[in-house]
Design a protein that fits this description.
By secondary structure, the chain is α/β, with parallel strands linked by helices. It has two domains: 2-214, Spore Coat Polysaccharide Biosynthesis Protein SpsA, Chain A; 234-320, UDP N-Acetylglucosamine Acyltransferase, domain 1 (3 Solenoid), CATH 2.160.10. The chain has six helices and 27 strands. It has helices at 33-39, 57-64, 82-90, 167-180, 190-198, 218-232, and strands at 2-6, 27-28, 31-32, 48-53, 70-75, 97-100, 104-106, 119-125, 133-138, 141-147, 156-164, 204-208, 212-214, 241-243, 247-249, 254-256, 258-260, 264-266, 271-273, 276-278, 280-282, 287-289, 292-294, 297-298, 303-305, 312-313, 318-320. Strands 1, 4, 5, 6, 8, 9, 10, 11 and 12 form a nine-stranded mixed beta sheet that branches. The termini are far apart.
């Protein structure tokens, strides 16, 4: 099975953090989002693993070198939508292929997709279907697909996880919508290409996902951190410090006279002293002292001193308060 992971999004809703690093390399529960995704393929028979990147792509390439997969890297110079990204990544591929969005963490066993004989779309019931690609089903078979409908007839949103038994058919369908100039909200959408195939008797079924985490905003990133820490918590005891699990604290972090947790991730070489921190993400080499933090994200190498309650601070920032 091949895998395509598009990670070219600029992450505008996660600025200022994405000014310095790609969205897919933002850390949650002790590792980058992309790391959680790639770890999900361990012990699975993977053929080509295609990464579609945009700006700051070199950082993604360097990160992927830690993994033993047969990577192909494709640069999406101009962002014309998810359909366009998959069109670039699918060129030359054949056969069974999984597509998984690089800013989405889905808690699901990918073994269920291997060697299937039908196309599969992962879906989840949502309260705001107008924001998503929506599927209508009958007896678990897809009968219609609509991208961001104004008047949705279903609340089943496509979660950003797809299995195609023949990726070359998807490639040809996207080529057709590009040729015909079919766009939704100014972009070539994968949903429109799948609708093109559905209208030509290609069959799709669905699997319903419970745990789907879109890491597109600071709030969503913190919510994902909460969920993942339940499974990936790690820490060792520190003197003069109270740790309230679940947390992930890198062994190299230096913490003194503080209360950490619950739901806190602390990266490598972080320094924390005289602070109370909960429900937050503190990235590598940050320095935090004399603060009370909750629902906060502190960027790598940032320095925070003072008495704030909620922060969203990018890499290499310096924040001081009287």
């Amino acid at each position: 099975m091949n895998v395509i992971i598009p990670v070219a999004g600029e992450g505008t809703r996660l600025r200022p953090h994405t000014h310095t690093i790609p969205k897919s390399l933002l850390c949650v529960a002790g590792k980058p989002i992309l790391g959680h995704i790639l770890d999900g393929f361990k012990n699975h028979p993977i053929g080509k693993l295609v990464i579609i990147h945009g700006v700051k792509g070199e950082a993604i390439i360097q990160f992927c070198k830690k993994y033993p997969y047969d990577f192909t890297f494709v640069h999406q110079e101009k962002r014309f939508g998810l359909g366009h990204a998959i069109y670039l990544g699918a060129k030359g591929l054949k056969g069974p292929t999984m597509v998984l969005l690089g800013d989405t963490i889905i808690d699901y066993d990918f073994k269920c997709f291997i060697n299937k004989r039908i196309n599969i779309l992962a879906v989840k019931a949502v309260n705001d279907p107008q924001r998503f690609g929506i599927v209508e089903i009958k007896n678990d078979r897809v009968i219609n697909l609509v991208e961001k409908p104004k008047n949705p007839k279903s609340n089943l949103a496509i979660c950003g996880l797809y299995y195609f038994k023949k990726i070359e058919k998807v490639y040809e369908a996207i080529a057709q919508i590009i040729k015909k100039g079919i766009k939704t909200k100014g972009e070539y959408q994968l949903t429109d290409a799948l609708k093109y195939l559905l209208d030509r008797d290609e069959q799709f079924t669905v699997v319903k996902i419970d745990n789907w985490y879109d890491c597109g905003t600071a709030g969503a990133l913190i919510a994902t951190n909460r969920h993942l820490l339940k499974k990936t918590h790690h820490f060792r005891k520190r003197r003069q410090t109270i740790i309230v699990p679940p947390v992930y604290i890198a062994n190299s972090a230096r913490i003194s006279n503080s209360v950490i947790g619950p739901d806190v991730s602390v990266g490598e070489n972080v320094v924390i002293k005289d602070s109370i921190i909960k429900d937050s993400i503190i990235n590598d080499a940050a320095v935090v002292s004399h603060v009370l933090l909750r629902e906060s994200i502190i960027g790598a190498k940032a320095i925070v001193k003072g008495s704030f309650r909620k922060l969203n601070v990018s890499d290499s920032s310096v924040i001081e308060a009287p």
